[in-house]
């Protein structure tokens, strides 16, 4: 009998505890909300894992890689996202104040916006890698620079948009805020317009590709090899060895000669011979020049002409095409041509002219 009374008292105590109200909700309601949260949490996790497993199975069956990336994108949703959704559903069963509901809604909105921004950013990274052909093993520094710059710009735009959406959902009047940001943005843009011009010029250089890293170019009176294309400046190593740093805006607004884009290099040079050379010797000199060009593999002679009577020399003009645009290889070929001509001229007694002046003295009749 005493045991029965104890059990009845315990039951009454338990029921009384369940019916006890805390912040306008009974303990029973809190327990139900917690139970809903726990059950939904594990249902969401299990269902999500099963969905990902099925999607991965079907993605492996296709030949495209995009569906694999979409699966990775979905799988990248943080577990805390659907954990909070389970908590939110459980909490909504309670009798909550307006302020608490507002806070729960704000957290849910912020969490969704945060996850969408992360997913959009990952998608942008994937698409840009495909468009710009950039991967982890990329050796093109200019590709990586432009890629990083575009990703940074996209991230800034996404987070600004996400912040505006969050503020709008929280009831903030974003019209005046957007106006202020617009005015502030204009002021900042005016202050850093030169920097922005260089940054957007770097995008123009990348997509238009007037030159690339490793190209030998001429900008105005300066020539050199492009070493790095940055977001603001391009670095060129000149023939003298120093590093020349030029703003990208300047490069997109001036004329540039890109010597690497040449399939062949046109070479023009002159040889001056002394005035005591006969026509036969000049013809022989032309033959030697033709032979000298043949010493360079792949070189093609265009023409050899006796073209003028100089102040102190009979001048030949020689035009030939070197088989590639590499400057060092061109100089090696030019040297080989010059050595051959010098050797043959010396062997056959043909003389090069050099600046000279002949003075004739005449005696007067009275002396």
Written overview of the protein:
The structure is a single chain. By secondary structure, this protein is of the alpha+beta class. It has a 5-stranded antiparallel β-sheet. The protein has a 3-stranded antiparallel β-sheet with strand order 8-10-9, with helices on one face. It folds into 3 domains: 18-188; 210-258, SH3 type barrels, CATH 2.30.30.60; 265-348, Alpha-Beta Plaits (2-Layer Sandwich). The protein has helices at 2-19, 27-61, 66-75, 79-91, 98-132, 141-169, 174-191, 193-208, 248-252, 279-294, 327-348, and strands at 21-22, 25-26, 216-219, 222-229, 233-238, 243-247, 256-258, 265-273, 300-309, 314-322. The chain is elongated. A hairpin with a 2-residue loop joins strand 3 (216-219) and strand 4 (222-229). The relative contact order is 0.05. The protein is built from 11 helices and 10 strands.
- How many domains, in number, for the residues? 3
Poorly predicted regions are: none
Sheet/helix structural class: alpha+beta
Give, in order, the helices and strands.
HEEHHHHHHHEEEEHEEHEEH
Count of helical regions: 11
Mean pLDDT over the residues: 77
Count of distinct strands: 10
The radius of gyration is 41 Å
Short note summarizing the structure:
This protein has a five-stranded antiparallel beta sheet. Strands 8-10-9 form a three-stranded antiparallel beta sheet, covered by helices on one side.
């Amino acid at each position: 009998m005493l045991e029965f009374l104890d059990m009845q008292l315990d039951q009454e105590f338990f029921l009384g505890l369940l019916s006890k109200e805390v912040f306008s909700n009974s303990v029973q309601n809190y327990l139900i909300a917690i139970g809903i949260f726990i059950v939904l949490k594990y249902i969401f996790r299990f269902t999500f894992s099963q969905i990902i497993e099925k999607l991965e199975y079907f993605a492996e069956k296709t030949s495209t890689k995009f569906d694999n990336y979409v699966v990775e994108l979905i799988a990248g949703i943080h577990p805390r996202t659907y954990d909070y959704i389970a908590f939110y559903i459980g909490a909504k069963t309670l009798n909550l104040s307006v302020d608490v509901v507002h806070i729960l809604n704000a957290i849910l909105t912020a969490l969704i916006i945060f996850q969408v921004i992360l997913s959009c950013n990952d998608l942008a990274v994937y698409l840009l890698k495909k468009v710009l052909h950039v991967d982890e093993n990329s050796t093109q520094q200019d590709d990586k620079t432009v890629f990083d710059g575009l990703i940074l710009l996209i991230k800034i735009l996404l987070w600004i948009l996400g912040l505006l959406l969050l503020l709008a959902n929280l009831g903030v009047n974003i019209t005046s805020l957007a106006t202020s940001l617009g005015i502030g943005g204009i002021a900042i843009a005016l202050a850093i317009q030169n920097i922005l011009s260089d940054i957007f010029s770097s995008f123009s250089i990348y997509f238009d590709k007037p030159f690339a890293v490793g190209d030998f170019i001429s900008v105005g009176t300066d020539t050199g090899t492009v070493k790095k294309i940055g977001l603001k400046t391009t670095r060129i190593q000149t023939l003298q060895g120093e590093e020349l740093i030029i703003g990208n805006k300047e490069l997109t607004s001036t004329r540039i000669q890109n010597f690497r884009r040449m399939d062949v290099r046109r070479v023009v040079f002159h040889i001056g011979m002394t005035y005591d050379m006969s026509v036969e010797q000049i013809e022989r000199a032309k033959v030697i020049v033709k032979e000298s060009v043949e010493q360079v593999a792949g070189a093609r002679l265009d023409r050899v002409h006796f073209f003028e009577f100089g102040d102190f020399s009979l001048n030949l003009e020689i035009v030939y095409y070197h088989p590639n645009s590499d400057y060092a290889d061109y100089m090696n070929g030019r040297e080989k041509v010059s050595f051959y001509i010098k050797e043959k001229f010396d062997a056959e007694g043909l003389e090069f002219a050099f600046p000279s002046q002949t003075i004739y003295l005449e005696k007067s009749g009275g002396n």
